[in-house]
Design a protein that fits this description.
Order of helices and strands: HEEEEHEHEHEHEHEHEEHHHE
Distance between the termini: 57 Å
Shape: globular
Radius of gyration: 18 Å
Number of strands: 12
CATH architecture of the largest domain: 3-Layer(aba) Sandwich
Helix content: 25-40%
Oligomer: single chain
């Protein structure tokens, strides 16, 4: 039985065109997508339906699992930690391998974080293969992000920060970046709240995502990640008048340096982020 499973995994790896030295440790078809967990000599990664492109959705260093691997996870977590006043209640839509909730729990254990994913298998894989552990302050929810936000709004509850990192194999599902949904997010933010969204810099929907976010929030930053260039973060305040200058936002870097260092981020890396105002 084990030999058959190993042979199947090896054949599947061949279909994926995995690099030499990388092998599949888990694969399954959920109600929404195929989840593939692979190991190389240095890291473990999660893919969604990437038979042709084999793009990694999330990765974790095997020897230093607390160190964030991807530039966008570093940028999103760094900006969350630098935001003033410090967010105490955070909503994350899109769990993936759990890199961001683990980083928040590592650096801000007092923060209440609700992490939501529509695909139960994603949450199970994040727990089983990437060490994501629910805690009193870190709650995992199997739910449609739109419905979760709508229910939050109907209860009159609010978050200090909403992070959108919801990708399938093709990018952000359009329903999760519609003007209607972003207006719901805007409603559930506290007056000092921040909205952070991971998008693709080279996406055909880049301009539309910029227009939609600007229509809802008034002013935004597009943060280009100089190291990789593949992602851009949208940064917006619930009140556009409270969107800080870049200088003010980064002024807290010396104070936050020890926390950032725990997840593999140094000041020089943060300084390489490029902020463009829209």
């Amino acid at each position: 039985m084990r030999a058959a499973a190993a042979a199947l995994a090896l054949a599947f790896a061949g279909c994926l065109g995995l690099p030499a030295g990388e092998h599949v440790v888990h694969s399954e078809r959920s109600a929404y997508q195929t989840l593939i967990v692979t190991d190389s000599p240095t890291r473990r990664c999660l893919r969604f339906d990437d038979v042709n492109s084999a793009l990694n959705q999330s990765c974790q260093q095997l020897t230093e699992p607390d160190q964030l691997v991807f530039d966008y996870t570093r940028a999103m977590t760094a900006l969350l930690l630098l935001w003033q006043p410090p967010p105490q209640r955070v909503l994350l839509i899109g769990v993936g391998g759990g890199s961001i909730p683990r980083a928040v729990a590592r650096t801000r254990p007092q923060v209440e974080l609700d992490a939501v994913d529509i695909d139960e298998a994603v949450i199970q894989v994040a727990q089983r293969y990437f060490g994501l552990t629910p805690q009193p302050q870190l709650r995992l929810h199997v739910a449609d992000g739109r419905e979760f936000v709508a229910a939050t709004r109907s209860r009159g509850q609010h978050y200090d920060a909403v992070l959108l990192d919801a990708f399938d194999a093709h990018g952000i599902p359009p329903a999760l970046f519609s003007e209607e949904f972003l207006r719901d997010i805007h409603t559930v933010l506290t007056p000092d709240g921040v909205f952070l969204a991971n998008t693709l810099a080279g996406s055909v929907s880049y301009a539309q995502e910029t227009r939609t976010a600007t229509a809802v929030f008034g002013r935004i930053y597009s943060v280009q990640l100089a190291v990789s260039g593949g992602n851009r973060l949208i940064v917006a305040a619930r009140d556009p008048a409270r969107l800080p200058t870049v200088e003010h936002l980064l002024s807290g870097l010396p104070e936050q340096a020890p926390a950032l260092a725990r997840i593999g981020i140094d000041a020089a890396w943060v300084d390489r982020m490029k902020f463009m105002s829209n």
